[in-house]
Amino acid sequence: MPNLSRLAPLAAWALVVVARPARPQGGAPQPADLLLVNTRIYTVDQSHPFVAAMAVRDGRVQFVGSTQEAMLLRGQSTRMLDLKGSTVIPGMIDAHAHLFGLGTFLHNIDLRDTRSYDEVVARVADRVKQAPAGRWIVGRAWDQNKWGNTRFPTHEALSRVSPNNPVLLTRVDGHAILVNAAAMRAAGVSAASKDPAGGRIERGAGGEPTGVFVDNAMGLVEKAVPPLSHDEMQSAALDAIAESNRWGLTALDDPGEPRDVLDVFEELAKAGKFNLRVYAMIADDSAAIEHYFQLGPQSGLYDNRLWIRSIKLYADGALGSRGAALLDPYNDDPKNVGLLKSTPEHLRDVSIRALRHGFQVATHAIGDRGNRVALDAYEAALETVPTVDHRFRIEHVQILDHADVPRFAKLGVIPSMQAVHQTSDMYWAPNRLGYARTLGAYAWRSLLNTGVVIPNGSDFPVERVNPLFSFHAAVARQDDDNWPPNGWFPEQRMTRQEALQSITIWPAYAAFQEQLIGSLSPGKLADFVILDRDIMTVPESDILGTHVVATYIGGRAVFERGR
């Protein structure tokens, strides 16, 4: 098994360039459909990394290079785009984002900016006033780490303002929920309810549930929430796609969607309404996995809009809810070592079956024990079914024991990380981990130095959709206010070139798409973004002031600012 190195995507780019020369040669070239001039284009293609013009024909990049050469491709029907010095980069790709989760989030209560439990309760009370009795109230993104009292809340205050409406509020990381008394009654949960494997019911002194359910225990209440109608599911997906385009996303990897959501994606893509390229991962459901195994890996469906060839598994929970599985106890909860959401045997067995059917596996792992368990499972699977270019992934990779850092390159496993998580977690992560373990947290440089690539993402709706937050975090390791000075553990920074690759060609590589997208190479699909600032040269403190002017997929605008 060859090491997965940063050179692998570069080799792929070179093949594209050799197959389709950047310069028109031999005879009269076909006129372009679209010409971009008076611009700065970062192609993420080593053969011509920075150019002044680009031509597009039939939805693909026809030429990149000088303005003088590009103008030779101008025809009577060519559309000219004079960008007046704006910057163009390849379409941004989020390597880990929950598209359908974003769609539902846009319709529910947004708790992201709440700074106290009282604020959460007040927002629920406002929604209850508008809802008929019995209707479920749903929200997301509370985070007790942002409150004065950072302990988990209890349901009493929430239950007082919503006696007749079940309420379910998902924590920001998606690994814990807070519910009221009406929701627990609807779900049949009581003091007699037992903690499921890989889950925890937070309890009071008498053993009664306090209203917080962690990881696999969430399902005890979630099963009682009425499902969305088919029309509501379609609406949620379309809203999420439009929101993604608004922030410059042309593609994303969507980890862990159930079959009914994948069916909706297919319906929309087949109807030509899917303005995004989605690498969808199958949720860990045995019936769904078997269904897709029978179909086999599917790539580039519906004009390169949908891929279904990967499976999402879970090793552990999240650090913020103390569900991330650690090798040693939590520094601020000495009796707790986190949760394994799946058994090591399950991770290994599904990985073996995936290899035999030609599918990729991506496993959520945040804690150092969770990452070790996932790596061990992959190693055992690859020993059973030796496979070239499997591109197995671990999602998040937030905390690593030093001994496990080189194992990614050794096994050919891709660490799919979300840089913006570091800037969200840095205020409290040392309290959870202690200083020594924090040295192995969000360790991009340590991993890059072993030769792997790091596809970047947001995990939205956990974080905001804008991929430039992860770009900024990768290069500055600072929050929106450029704190702390010089960055948090700055020795782990990426360079700007690496950060740009991490939101373009590296996610494409992680999804077997590097021959189609991820760079503006002649012959590739013409997915690109126009920005009003040059993110490669402006001061780090100015990166987050950048706006998307337009987003193009296949040479067609799917978002234009001001329209």
What can you see in these coordinates?
- This protein is α/β, with parallel strands linked by helices and 563 residues long.
- It has a domain at 105-222: Roll (Diaminopimelate Epimerase, Chain A, domain 1), CATH 3.10.310.
- It is built from 21 helices and 24 strands.
- Strand 10, helix 5 (156-161) and strand 11 form a beta-alpha-beta unit.
- Mean pLDDT is 94; it is low at 1-25.
How many individual helices? 21
CATH class of the domain at 105-222: Alpha Beta
Report the structural category. Answer: alpha/beta
Uncertain stretches: 1-25
What characterizes the major β-sheet? 7 strands, parallel
Mean pLDDT: 94
CATH topology heading of the domain at 105-222? Diaminopimelate Epimerase, Chain A, domain 1
**How far is the N terminus from the C terminus?**
49 Å
The second-level CATH architecture of the domain at 105-222 is Roll
| Silhouette | globular
Strand order of the largest sheet: 8-15-16-18-19-20-21
